[in-house]
Specification:
The structure holds 2 protein chains of 2 kinds. Chain A contains 12 helices and 9 strands. By secondary structure, chain A is α+β, with helices and mostly antiparallel strands. Chain A has a domain at about 190-335: Butyryl-CoA Dehydrogenase, subunit A, domain 3 (Up-down Bundle). In chain A, a hairpin with a 4-residue loop joins strand 1 and strand 2 (about 130). Chain B is built from 11 helices and 8 strands. Chain B is globular. Helix content of chain B is about 45%, strand content about 15%. Chain B is of the alpha+beta class. The longest helix of chain B has about 30 residues, at about 275-305. In chain B, strand 2 (about 140-145) and strand 3 form a beta hairpin. The chains are: A alpha+beta, B alpha+beta. At the A-B interface, helix 7, strand 9, helix 8, helix 9 and helix 12 of A face helix 7, helix 8 and helix 11 of B.
């Protein structure tokens, strides 16, 4: 039992944190967002050169041959930076195709996605993250839970302006989708991998919101003292930590289960999705509140995190359906 | 990252499971506290005979030198087998390790074996009417008289005092010390003497797990000072540091079992089809799993770095909150049946109210998280 990142994984995290702090400041994120949900192309090019999108893709397909935990580590850091890139969808779609795709699908998509030459979209027809401009879409709205593949050639992908302009969203209509691999349980598990990836991003979003809040309430003074000395503010911050760590425990569990214990993935992914969907929104809402009037301004930047958390929760399909899954799984075990 | 047990941990678990399978603790006596305690005492004797009473103690003192993970496994398996906590739980978890850390060879020789075998039960005399979360505010005094100390004061929330031979007692030996946490001394006090009066505290469940302790001229020989006169704060911290680590896994498995039982009862009533019920049960399932996972993260942090990470201070808070929600949901789902006098769920509902108070109130835990984990400035008190 060792529930922590390995030294190598911690090193990936450290490098990612440093690189993104240097390249993806709030000024850069704001610039991309204010230009109308544009991506930070220079950043994306650099991440692609570093091989990040292919972190969980096998070496034979041009990836780095690492796993879901390493992907989760990168996603957390990109969430922390709220970076305006198509990384989440591209890397998560690549991981899904790697895990469940047919040989032909892997050969067709993995080298292009791993190199960043192609990008992907993930989500549903009603809300597809990074769908505009993507070459391939991994869609999760089948009642069976199976992830399916679609391409813009077969479907109509339209820009959807959302409250989160740090990412480009789309709707997808018309056309056909093809099964991922042979469909079935493997394609359901691929959907779980995608949700686990979104949950990992939310951990970073929440962590950033918590850290910004702590810095602010230590600094901001009212009534002659730092507002962070007020117990009501402190209790809010403690609750933010609890929710952030809850999301982290479950997201790491899901990432680990995806590769090491697939039989636990359905439950682990539902745990991670439920914890992230609610926790991300709650922590980032608290961040706005704890920033007071400043938190309600455009320039304070905490709103980007709140908006990202809202859209990520929507991408996850909300927490309720995952709680229903958890109850159903428990009922089977208890019966 | 590896969330499976390694070979050693698996071997430990399998050996324990085999022992538990061969040693059925039997059914808990219902409705009679003394009989229930006698059952737990007998259970600890059997654990001790099998070498399982104090797995976390070093082998030289009759333990197995278990790692934190193995200790967690022990409590998980105990709960999963429907076994009770050993009767002398405060002796095993608190007094024993504190005596190992601070005791003289004579004190260790005298006390450790009877703790292990439940021959001598221990209670904890820390809290006072005006010193709950704020332990250093305690007022019980110890005055030197020849080679003895004479103790006067009142302790409260003393569980198992009615069965205890010994008490871990913290008292003030220097009223003039400049700071309130100075001038305290830790005593090993014999409960069987005239100066000690035990008055049961009837709690909201109607039971009396806890007592008030009135100390009026109780005497403790010099030889029973633990860790030196005036060093009581540090010794007490050793006791308190031990308090929250081991039991968490037992409690968490018990809570999981209660949730599974509630899911079963909801299913029997066809209530899982109700989306509101399913949603609430799913939330509790999530919270139970978050607690389990976070507790394991905490173990890894302690094993790796020697101290808990930021998540370590959250588990007690999570547990008490979740247990209260769980028992409240049982009352929602089962209706009056769960609120009938004597019903197990009624007991659990009431008992859960104590969870967010005992062992550190949630309010104080949040303060500790804010100040020590998040580094926020000390709140005005």
């Amino acid at each position: 039992m060792h529930f922590d990142l390995t030294e190598d994984q911690k090193e990936i995290k450290r490098v990612a944190r440093e690189l993104l702090a240097a390249r993806s400041s709030w000024a850069r994120v704001r610039e991309a967002a204010e230009a109308g949900a544009q991506y930070d192309q220079a950043l994306w090019d650099e991440l692609a050169q570093l091989g990040w999108p292919g972190i969980a893709v096998a070496e034979e397909h041009g990836g780095q041959g690492l796993g879901a935990v390493e992907l989760a580590v990168l996603l957390e850091e990109l969430g922390y930076a709220c970076a305006a890139t198509p990384f989440l969808s591209t890397a998560a779609a690549a991981a899904a195709i790697q895990a469940a795709g047919s040989d032909a699908q892997r050969a067709r998509w993995l080298p292009a996605l791993a190199s960043g030459e192609a990008t992907a979209g993930i989500g549903t027809r009603a809300l597809c993250a990074d769908g505009v401009g993507a070459q391939v879409l991994v869609l999760l709205d089948r009642p069976s839970g199976e992830a399916v593949l679609a391409t813009p050639n077969d479907t109509d992908v339209a820009l959807l302006e959302t409250i989160d302009p740090t990412r480009r969203y789309a709707t997808v209509s018309g056309g056909d989708a093809e099964p991922l691999g042979n469909g079935g349980a493997a394609a359901v598990a691929a959907g779980d991998r995608v949700r686990a990836a979104v949950a990992a991003e939310v951990v970073g979003v929440a962590q950033r919101a918590l850290e910004m809040t702590l810095a602010y309430v230590k600094e901001r003074r009212q009534f002659g003292v730092a507002v962070g000395s007020f117990q009501a503010v402190q209790n809010r911050c403690a609750q933010m930590l609890l929710e952030t760590e809850s999301a982290r425990s479950t997201a790491l569990y899901a990432a680990w289960a995806a590769d090491a214990a697939p039989e636990r993935l359905p439950e682990a992914a539902a745990l991670a999705a439920a914890a992230a969907a609610d926790g991300g929104r709650s922590v980032t809402a608290s961040a706005i509140q704890a920033h007071g009037g400043i938190g309600f301004t455009w320039e304070a930047d905490v709103h980007w995190l709140y908006k990202r958390a809202q859209l990520d929760a929507a991408l996850l399909g909300g927490a309720r359906r995952h709680r229903a899954t958890l109850t159903a799984l428990a009922a089977v075990r208890v019966a | 990252m590896d969330l499976t047990f390694n070979a050693e941990e698996t071997a430990f678990r399998d050996e324990l499971r085999a022992w538990l399978a061969a040693n059925d603790p039997g059914t808990a006596p219902h409705g009679d506290e003394d009989a229930h305690y006698a059952w737990r005492r007998d259970w600890q004797r059997r654990l001790a005979d099998g070498g399982w009473a104090a797995v976390h103690w070093p082998a030289e003192h009759g333990g197995r030198g278990a790692t934190l993970t193995q200790s967690a496994i022990f409590y998980e398996e105990l709960a999963a087998a429907g076994a009770p906590l050993p009767a002398n739980v405060l002796g095993l978890l608190l007094a024993g390790p504190t005596i190992m850390t601070w005791g003289t060879p004579e004190q260790q020789e005298r006390h450790l074996v009877p703790i292990l075998t439940a021959e001598e039960i221990w209670c904890q005399g820390f809290s006072e009417p005006d010193a709950g979360s704020d332990l250093a505010a305690l007022k019980t005094r110890a005055v030197k008289d020849g080679d003895e100390w004479v103790i006067t004061g009142q302790k409260v929330w003393t569980s198992m005092a009615q069965y205890a031979k010994w008490c871990m007692l913290v008292a003030r030996t220097d009223a003039d010390a400049p700071k309130k946490h100075q001038g305290l001394t830790y005593f090993l006090m014999d409960m069987e003497q005239d100066g000690v009066e035990i008055v049961p505290l009837k709690q909201i469940t109607g039971e009396s797990e806890f007592n008030e302790l009135f100390l009026d001229g109780a005497r403790v020989p010099d030889a029973n000072v633990l860790g030196g006169v005036g060093n009581g704060w540090k010794v007490a911290l050793t006791t308190l540091m031990n308090e929250r680590s081991g039991l968490a896994f037992f409690l968490q498995v018990r809570m999981r079992q209660m949730l599974d039982q509630l899911i079963g009862e909801a299913a029997e009533r066809g209530l899982l089809e109700d989306p509101v019920v399913a949603d609430k049960l799913g939330e509790l399932h999530l919270r139970c799993e978050v607690l389990r996972l976070t507790a394991y993260r905490g173990l890894t942090a302690i094993e790796t770095y020697g101290q808990p990470g930021p998540e370590g201070s959250l588990t007690k808070w999570m547990w008490s909150d979740t247990n209260q929600q769980l028992t409240q949901l049982a009352a929602d789902i089962l209706g009056p049946e769960a609120l009938t006098a004597g019903a197990p769920w009624a007991f659990e509902l009431l008992r859960a109210r104590g969870n967010s108070i005992e062992g550190g109130t949630t309010e104080v835990l949040k303060n500790i998280v804010a100040e020590r984990v998040l580094g926020l400035p000390r709140a005005g008190r």
